[in-house]
């Protein structure tokens, strides 16, 4: 399988960070003819999340609040299972095998980390 490299310009990353929610839909890089497949769409969504959290963390930090983004690796979801059993199955099996833990994560593991972090942050 040919590797895909996603290159975002500085302007594109700024657009992801500061565009109002519905304004994201008008960014050139997020138009249907630009998104090549579901993997590309997923990568762009992840990057948008990171950039938006970075921008919001500055705003909310001025008010004394902290904002974090949890961006785990491969998590077993219905989407991951569909991909695992679909045309890209070998690609997913390879990713699963290369996970640092030797396996993908679960939604419960992410929820537990998020919940524990929230509790710790609130107690400080």
From TrEMBL:
It comes from Phocaeicola dorei CL03T12C01. The lineage of its organism: Bacteria, Pseudomonadati, Bacteroidota, Bacteroidia, Bacteroidales. This is Uncharacterized protein. InterPro entries: NAD(P)-bd_dom_sf, SDR_fam.
């Amino acid at each position: 399988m040919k590797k895909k490299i996603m290159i975002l310009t500085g302007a594109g990353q700024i657009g992801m960070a500061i565009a109002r929610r519905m304004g994201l839909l008008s960014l050139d890089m997020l138009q249907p003819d630009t998104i090549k497949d579901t993997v590309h769409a997923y990568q762009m969504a992840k990057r948008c999340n990171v950039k938006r959290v970075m921008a919001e963390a500055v705003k909310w930090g001025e008010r004394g609040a902290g904002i974090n983004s949890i961006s785990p690796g491969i998590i077993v979801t219905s989407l991951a299972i569909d991909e695992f059993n679909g045309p890209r199955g070998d690609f997913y099996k390879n990713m699963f095998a290369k996970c640092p833990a030797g396996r993908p994560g679960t939604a419960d593991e992410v929820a537990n980390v998020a919940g524990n972090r929230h509790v710790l942050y609130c107690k400080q």
